[in-house]
Design brief:
single chain, mainly beta, Ribosomal Protein L15, Chain: K, domain 2, four-stranded mixed beta sheet, 8 strands
Length: about 90
């Protein structure tokens, strides 16, 4: 694993999983794909935007890999974290 920390800090973004990748998509206009990151390369995801949406499938896939998903509030401080039950 490379151990990338992915921070999404821009509104109007949608995160989902497709074929083993985390996909970042713009939610304005034609919903352009902005990038893909292999799930196995991700050490953590930081959700630091209010207009952000994500799928349950993505959260499950990250949890299966032991990757934390951090939720931030309006003042950009972490307020919650999704961690796997098995403690990987």
């Amino acid at each position: 694993m490379i151990g990338r920390i992915i921070e999404v800090a821009d509104d109007r973004r949608h995160l989902f999983m497709h074929r083993g990748f985390l996909v970042v998509q713009d939610t304005d206009g034609d919903r352009k794909e902005l990038g893909q990151i292999p799930l196995d390369d991700i050490a953590a995801v930081i959700a630091n935007a209010h207009g952000l949406s994500y799928t349950n499938n993505l959260l499950v896939a990250l949890s299966e890999r032991g990757t934390p998903f951090v939720l931030c509030s309006a003042n950009h401080n972490a307020v919650g974290m999704l961690l796997p039950i098995d403690g990987k």
